[in-house]
Amino acid sequence: MGNLGLIIEREYLNKVTNKSFILATFLTPLIIVGFSLFIGYLTSVNNDTVKNISVVDQSGYFTNSLNNSDDLNFHFIDDFDLEEAKLISKTKSDYGLLFIPYYDDLNQIADSIMFISEDAPSIAIISRIEGKIERLLTNRNFEKVGLDIEKINKSKININLYQESFEGEETTKMDGIIKLIFGMVLGMLLYIFIFAYGSMIMMSVIEEKTSRIVEIMISSVKPFQLMMGKILGTSLAGLTQFLVWTILIVMFSYLMTAIFGIETSTQNSELLLSSSGNMNMNTEALDAISAFINLPLTNIIVAFLIYFIGGYLLYASLFAAIGAAVDNQTDAQQFVMPITIILILALYVGIFTIPEDPNGTVAIIFSYIPFTSPVVMLMRIPNGVPIYEQIISIIILYLTFTLCIWFAAKIYRVGILMYGKKPSYKELIKWLKY
Questions:
Q1: Disulfide: which of 8, 186, 194, 360 matches 233 by Cβ 3.0-4.6 Å?
Q2: Is 417 helix (H, G, I), strand (E, B) or coil?
Q3: What is the pTM of this model?
Q4: CA 380 → CA 190, 292, 299, distances in Å?
Q5: Where are the alpha helices (DSSP H) in 17-72?
Q6: Closest listed residue to residue 350, CA positions, set 186, 173, 171
């Protein structure tokens, strides 16, 4: 254990004192916050820009009805055909031209309306224009068939389903959104951490192997101790970097927001209003806060730490074995590809299956498979997973990790002193028998 402690200390200090590691630790949060602020600034500038749209209304239905908004300004130009209107709109540098032809049939008008612009228009802007025109044409059609629009509007009934669990706990639509986002963030964090620091372990092993330093080290310590020391030392360095990133991101966000007065995230009120009916922004914000508070935070934090450690150590042992088996990064790609495919599959299941049915058969099966359970289960837990399922999944994960460490140690023991030849999968299986 003394040698193992020395190796862990060496690997940890070697990583945290490395210049590139220090630069990445301090610059990455600054870049992330700066980029977020820059995007927020561009978004706010874009939202504040008034978009001028020329309108040719040959039908005459929209002249006094198509009202301006804070960022949309409609200018009606009359008695021009399409080509003349295009020239006028282009000369005025308009955001676009809305051309509404005349037909007796309102459905024909709806099918023939054109929006012409120099560049591809914003989807949100097009959706809003479509909504305005659709509403006006619908009201016109009601009048045409003799229906009273005022009575129709008064007769409308808006539905906002009250949601409750079988235990009597109140839920909202926002709960599902927050759970989905929170689960995806946890899954993505683990995915990124596995690849970033797993690859770091692999490259460290390859570097020491090719420089022949490992031959000196292996004379003093056992291969298993060397492998475990690298895994644990790099893990501690990664956790240190992750902790520093969290502190710095919060600190930089606060300072830069206070100094420049730019929010790191912005929301499009029109899109929120269109997706939430009569709910206003304050209600959305309160629902989001309530949904976050209603999350099983204690369960999430404990599970994240357990799956984070188990999942990372599982894959780190595989990366260490790959590093020992090859002499260069190019050869390593052959063995890294299966790991990549498995993790991408876990993300695919988490993103496309869990939102639809977090307790479905597919989600449950992949929550038990140890190579996918860290990602999939972390995405499921915010939606509520029975404790016994989590315990079974964790037991399977750590048993598999123990088995993988044993296999990886055998490959490491043989491969760490093999040079000049890229082993095949068949040869790796032979190494397990030594």
A1: 8
A2: coil
A3: 0.65
A4: 14, 15, 12
A5: 19-48
A6: 186
Q: Where are the alpha helices (DSSP H) in 261-278?
A: 269-276
Of 339, 320, 318, the closest CA to residue 207 belongs to 320
Phi, psi (rounded to 5 degrees) for 55: -130, 125
DSSP 356: T
Distances (CA, A) of 298 to 250, 304, 307, 377, 425: 21, 10, 14, 15, 42
User: Largest Cα–Cα distance in the chain?
Assistant: 96
CA 296 distance to own-chain centroid: 21
Tens digit of each residue's pLDDT (9 = 90 or more) over 114-154: 888 887 777 878 888 888 888 888 888 888 878 887 788 77
- Please tell me the distance from the alpha carbon of residue 413 to that of residue 427, in angstroms, as a whole number: 14
Note the pLDDT tens digit of each residue in 167-189. 666 666 666 677 777 777 877 88
Residue 101 near residue 78, CB atoms below 8 Å: no
Q: How far is CA 211 from the centre of its chain?
A: 39
**Alpha carbon of 261 to those of 28, 101, 196, 265, 269: distances in Å?**
21, 46, 33, 12, 20
User: Which position has the token pair 């080290």?
Assistant: 217
Q: How many CA atoms lie within 13 A of 309 on its CB side?
A: 11
Structure tokens at 170: 């109140």
Q: Quickly tell me which residue has 């058969």 as its tokens.
A: 361
